[in-house]
Amino acid sequence: LHAPCERNTAIVSSGSRHCRPHTAPNSRVIRASARVENVAERLNSLVDEEVVSGRGRSTPQQVRREVLQLVQDLELNAEKNQNRVSPEILDGDWRCTYTTREATASPIQRLIVGAGADIVPEIFQTVRLSGDPKRMFVSNKARFSTPFGAVMLHVIATVTGVDREKNRLQLRFSEAYFEYERSERARHNAFRVPYPVPFRLLGDKACGWLDVTYISGSLRISRGNKGTIFVLRRL
Prior knowledge:
Largest sheet: 8 strands, antiparallel, barrel
Number of strands: 11
C-alpha cells in the first residue's frame, strides 16, 4: 500500500502515485489580475462622469488622455484566445458611456456622438447573436431631447459574419429611422420617420465591422472600422 501523502498527488498511467508539493498561485498573475481590475474600476469611474458632459464630447485633454491610456491597458491585458463575440458573453443591452470622435466617422455617427448630453442624453446598443444566424443584428439607439418630446434614432445593422479569431462582427447597415414618442407611457402613440439614407443603394459603403477588444463583467470596449472607440456598460 502506498503511504499517505499530505501533499498534492499526481496519478500516472502506471497507476502509481507521486507526491508533489503544493504550488502557490503565481504572484505575477495575481498582481496582473488585481491591476486589470483596478484599471477597469478607474475607467468606469471616469466615463461615468463623462456621460453627463456628453460621453467625451467636452472632456478635458488630460482626462481624455487618461481614458485612452486605460483603454489601451485593458486591451493589452485582455484574455488571450478569449472568444469575445459569443452570444453568451455579448448578447444583451448596453449603454454607451464614452466615445472618441473620428474625422472619418459617417454623417449619422457624427450626428449622434457629436451632440452633447443636453441634446442626446442616452445612447444604447443591443446585440443579438443567438438564435437564427440570418437574424443576428446590432441595434444602436440614441435618444434626443426636443421641446416636443423624446425622439429616438434607431440605426440597425445586420450581422453578416462573426470572426472569432479577430473578435469581430461584420456588419451591413440596413435600416434607420426616427421614432417620435408623444408620451413615454403611451408608446402606441409613437410614429416613425425614415432616416434619409438609402442603405440598399450604398453597396459596400453600407458595410463595416465592430471589434470587441475587451469585455469583462459589465464593461466592454469596442472599436469600429472608422477608428471610433466605444466604452459601454451592460444594463
